[in-house]
Write a structure and sequence with these properties.
Length: 471
């Protein structure tokens, strides 16, 4: 079924067009981004039920103008014929005052092509039609079944988040609209034996509605059993190992290594080492990586970004060569490059930055069983937990939930946890020696720009074999 368009944004279009016309009498570039995001967060556990608005919920507009030197922005919540005069006055007085008081960089005027397009997403079951009562009942059933699976389980969290995202972008040349649904779920299992407590969680995500809860129902037993196995997990002996990274861990590496590392606003600020390596080898020849709103069909797939740039598929690494970065439109102007549709905002009240969309390694030709058979002493790493990267020095740290021991090409059944993987990005990527045939993506949670500016992204890949330092 088709996702429903935002009535609020549809009813605002005529007034937005008037505002653009009025501002265009004084400014050479004017654009307006309108957002209307609805969503709920549901959490059911042994201790209670929580229902809240999702993190991204908002409704409002941001105007961007070229003020004669660079760009200024003004955000507001409501627009009508009665408020147009006040908005124009605020922009003319407050935004121009900034130029007089502060030393700023100059930017050329954004050049646009005529385009009018709309994207309406699809889903199987609309959570807004299903309603909170049914959603809570379904999560409660999953929680109860998981708790009943083992006496060692002391608590279960069953979580479902919905995001109904609607946006419009208008300028003198652009008329763009999009509306789509994102869904994400989690099963979080806590197991306890004697004095030891361990937990494991598994996320689910996609351009989906209520139907994503079927995935939670299908997987709760595996999550519970993994949390129990972790009770007997050992610590890893620090050192360098051959490892096979499951798709979620491979995605974590892609996200941290040449996701953040090639966000081109960092090129402008001379804070990214990747700028020095465009056109050079940074990974093994069997390594290719993509980022883009159209590169995959997942949590960061859209028609246009928050600056009105149509989404693309950027080949970041091709056969080991660093080919390109990902950019917002203002960074592209400064660098003399073409914007890639990666300008994203946490909200209409926040600045647009160059941000990742769907970031992943491309598939290869190897089979997982052959990859395992090739490892003499190492681990199969699973469960993406967290990561960080220093774009200036290319140090990387990724944490996986656990590792399955491999000895002489066979899984032994022994588990290590947790697993901290560290290294120098080119060393890690150049060590990739095998890549499996299929790609899986995930996009639960949020990606921050440093410690803030949270947006939805997805990442993933095939299974990859590499050499890494574990601790």
């Amino acid at each position: 079924m088709k996702v429903v368009k935002s009535e609020f944004l549809s009813n605002s279009k005529a007034v937005v067009r008037k505002l653009i016309s009025m501002l265009s009498e004084e400014y050479k570039y004017v654009s307006v981004l309108g957002t209307d995001i609805k969503g709920k967060s549901y959490r059911v556990s042994k201790t209670g039920i929580e229902v809240n608005d999702s993190f991204l919920v908002e409704r409002g507009f941001v105007v961007r103008i070229h003020n004669g030197v660079n760009y200024s922005e003004y955000s507001f919540n409501n627009i009508s014929d009665d408020t147009l005069g006040a908005i124009v006055k605020e922009i003319s007085t407050k935004l121009n005052k900034v130029i007089k008081d502060i030393s700023v960089n100059s930017y050329d005027i954004i050049e646009e092509k005529e385009i009018k397009e709309i994207f309406i997403g699809e889903m199987k079951i609309d959570p807004e039609e299903v309603g909170s009562e049914v959603i809570i009942k379904t999560l409660s059933e999953i929680k109860d079944a998981a708790l009943a699976h083992s006496d060692l389980v002391v608590n279960i969290d069953a979580i479902y988040n919905t995001y109904h995202i609607s946006k419009l972008f208008m300028s003198n040349k652009k008329d763009l609209e999009q509306s789509y649904m994102l869904g994400e779920g989690y099963i979080f299992s806590i197991a306890r034996k004697e004095e030891k407590t361990k937990y494991y969680f598994k996320p689910f995500s996609g351009l989906k509605g209520f139907e994503i809860l079927d995935e939670l129902k299908a997987e709760y037993k595996n999550v519970v059993e993994t949390s129990i196995k972790l009770l007997d997990a050992k610590n890893v002996q620090p050192g360098e190992y051959e490892v096979i990274c499951a798709p979620d861990v491979a995605g974590l590496i892609a996200h941290e290594a040449f996701g953040h590392g090639v966000e081109m606003d960092m090129f402008v600020k001379d804070r990214a080492k990747g700028a020095e390596f465009i056109g050079k080898q940074v990974a093994s020849k069997i390594t290719t990586m993509h980022d883009g709103a159209t590169a995959a069909n997942h949590m960061s797939s859209y028609l246009f970004d928050d600056e009105g740039t149509i989404g693309t598929d950027t080949v970041v690494i091709e056969n080991g060569i660093l080919k390109a970065g990902i950019s917002d439109i203002l960074s592209a102007i400064k660098l003399g490059t073409t914007p890639t549709g990666n300008g994203k905002r946490q909200s209409f009240e926040r600045k647009a930055y160059a941000r990742m969309t769907n970031t992943f390694f491309s598939p290869g030709n190897d089979k997982l069983e052959d990859m395992i058979a090739s490892v003499k002493d190492g681990y199969l790493l699973e469960g993406s937990y967290s990561g960080m990267e220093d774009p200036k020095s290319w140090g990387i740290q990724c944490i996986a939930s656990f590792g399955r021991e491999i000895k002489d090409g066979k899984l032994t059944g022994n588990i290590i946890a947790p697993v901290v993987m560290t290294g120098y990005v080119p060393d890690l990527l150049n060590s990739i020696s095998m890549v499996s045939e299929t790609v899986e993506l995930g996009g639960s949670g949020y990606c921050g720009k440093g410690y803030k500016e949270f947006v939805k992204t997805s990442c993933g890949g095939p299974y990859i074999k590499a050499k890494v330092r574990l601790g």
